Amino acid sequence: MGVPEMNYQQLIDVGLSEDLESFERRLVVTADALGFPIISGVLLRGRLDDNGVLGRSFGNPPAGHAEAAKDLGDSLRDPVLERLMAQPLPVLYDQRTYVAAGVGELWETQAPYGFQTGIAIKLHLPEDKHFLLGVDREEALPTSGAELMQLVAGLQLLGAHAMSAADRLLGPKLGRLVKPDGGELPKLTKRELDVLSWTAQGKTAWEVSVILGMSEKTVNFHLGNVMRKLGVNSKHQAVLICVTAGIL
After folding, report:
1. DSSP bridge pairs for 122
2. Is the pTM of this model over 0.85?
3. Do 77 and 141 lie in a common domain?
4. Residues 19 and 44 placed together within one structural domain of the fold
5. Which residues contact 114 (CB under 8 A, 6 or more apart)?
6. Containing domain of residue 197, as a range?
7. Residuewise pLDDT in 10s, the chain (248 residues)
8. Same domain for 39 and 107
9. CATH number of the domain residue 205 falls in
10. What whole-number distance in Å separates Cα of residue 159 and Cα of residue 169?
């Protein structure tokens, strides 16, 4: 049967959605054109296993599924979500994915609602935000490599447009990371956050260098960058600001 061709005007319309209602409606239409009756996603600040994680979900999952899938513990055991948070690659799933991970019962819980096989992607945004988007259906994914690649590419294109709309419509509801004086917290690199995280645990620059496999000079370089970005004079002040802002 093949894979339907992507309608680029639909993609543009998704990205230009004026409100959440039109955003979800356009997402559903576009996903259905790809052959998936269910589309769902979430805009997160932080990680699923963080106590301070914030999120706003969207899509058209069946009402009964929301009640069945509300357990955060189940979400943390979900192999699709686990792979999404651990790697930047699209994740394809079916019952075998869950059985191989030893959590076949999670698939059994969601399968009656149409979540039997699907594709999910994750994209990164500034301020420690993550955009997750997935499409689901009962029908098996194509066995043809070319058709499967076309579906994945279509979802990635949709995700790129949907991400901008989701961040514009839902991002403000996640709040902003701010310094104690009310100023917006500047973006810190992953390495800077890694160094600061170990520093917050009382490790010296030499100990952090051993843990992260870099020179002590490089550790101090990252700490210096953090202090400069935050406008403070000590690493302890930098740690305090980031702990207060909820990113450490």
Report:
1. 132
2. no
3. yes
4. yes
5. 37, 38, 62, 136, 137, 138
6. 190-245
7. 555 666 788 889 999 999 999 999 999 999 999 999 999 999 988 776 665 567 888 999 887 776 655 554 566 789 998 898 888 899 999 999 999 999 999 999 999 999 999 999 999 887 778 899 999 999 999 988 899 999 999 999 999 999 999 999 988 777 655 554 555 667 788 889 889 889 888 889 999 999 999 999 999 999 999 999 888 888 887 887 776 666 66
8. yes
9. 1.10.10.10
10. 15
In a domain, 179, yes or no: no
Residue for token pair 């294109």? 157
Q: What domain count does the chain have?
A: 2
Q: Are residues 59 and 118 in the same domain?
A: yes
Q: At 96, which CATH number?
A: 3.30.450.80
- Confirm if 52 and 46 have CB atoms less than 8 A apart: yes
In a domain, 51, yes or no: yes
Do 55 and 118 fall within a single domain?
Answer: yes
Among 67, 51, 9, which Cα is nearest to 248's? 51
Same-domain pairing of 131 and 39: yes
Burial grade of 104 (CB within 10 A; 0-12, 13-18, 19 or more) = middle
